[in-house]
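Instructor's aside before we start: the two examples that follow are unrelated to each other. I chose them only because their records fit on one page, so don't look for a connection. First example below.
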Amino acid sequence: MQYDAVIIGGGPAGLAIASELSRTRRVLVLEKGMAGNTNRSWFVPLNVVDDTVRPFTYGGVTRFLANTYSGGKATWNARQFPRYPYVDEKRLLPHWVDTIRANGSEVVDQCEYRSHQVKADGVT
């Protein structure tokens, strides 16, 4: 099988890129575990949230954490700050996996990258 792009890693970055590329290219995503599984949450600036991602966001930053120069930790609460909404990763990542597959590309779980060969006609 030939692909236009192979992405190693089915986490947030790999799936976001693959879902966009799969609109116009044939993509293969290889994940050593299960693509779309993560135990991390994140928030993003609102200006990078398009109509596709918006349904998978909620709320906004309400608590800030910082390491101080002296090595101490500082935390403070703030009013809800909708400019930086949280991403609902438990819904968005599976959505990206489904999108990649619906676009005719592939996501392979339980698969580790081990090596590759570069030839004149492509990479194996």
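Example two begins here.
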Amino acid sequence: MHLDCSDQAILVTGASRGIGRAIALALADAGATVAVHYNRSREAAEEVAENCGEGAEAIQADLSELSACEQLFDAVVDRFGRIDTLVNNAGVARAAPLDASTEDWHDAWAQTLHVNLRAPELLCRLAIRHFQERDDGGRIINVASRAAFRGDTPEYMTYAASKAALVALTRSIARGLGEDNICAFTVAPGFTRTDMAQDFIDRYGEGHARKDLALNELTTPEDVAPTVVFLASGHADHATGATIDINAGSYVH
């Protein structure tokens, strides 16, 4: 089977590093023209765009700001002419200890929910309207987490809650917009070796992160990316609404 995305313009959020970087590079390798979104890591994003080949561009937006989502979407459409697939990958994992002050607790929840849920929700809405206006459908791929289904440690309840809501959002899109030829999928990685996960590894140790896996090594971003390419390619449209678990056999160990 040949996965061909050469006729697609694809926006990948949080694409300067980690899972997003691997997704952007894999999509480009399949022929897609990729919009590489970033927030602070400009040089890293520009390097990803360069490696994605001709046509790819790095585009900045702070997704913790309400107006940034529309500005990002409009910028991509302006530069590429259209968006065929939206990949919502950007996310944060901010600890909110139970003994934190109420103000700090609120801030952690507000930031996490905005980046992990509100920004994807706003971008999904923009993508749906864009797909409907073009009248030829499109695909949305939301990157959630194993934590959406099994929860997380007490200080990361906000992360788990935001990702669980993202799953429900994706399923709602799939259920309600299939007649418009709009497909939506969730990819739910387990513990993945990324910069964002390093704080957990430093605190608890890599052995703790691996202890409930069926495989003997942590998932890497490159393990996640091929599934996103498959979903974007159109070969899996009848799996719309599905969640694809990529967690090294965590659930079956």
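The longest helix spans residues 102-134.
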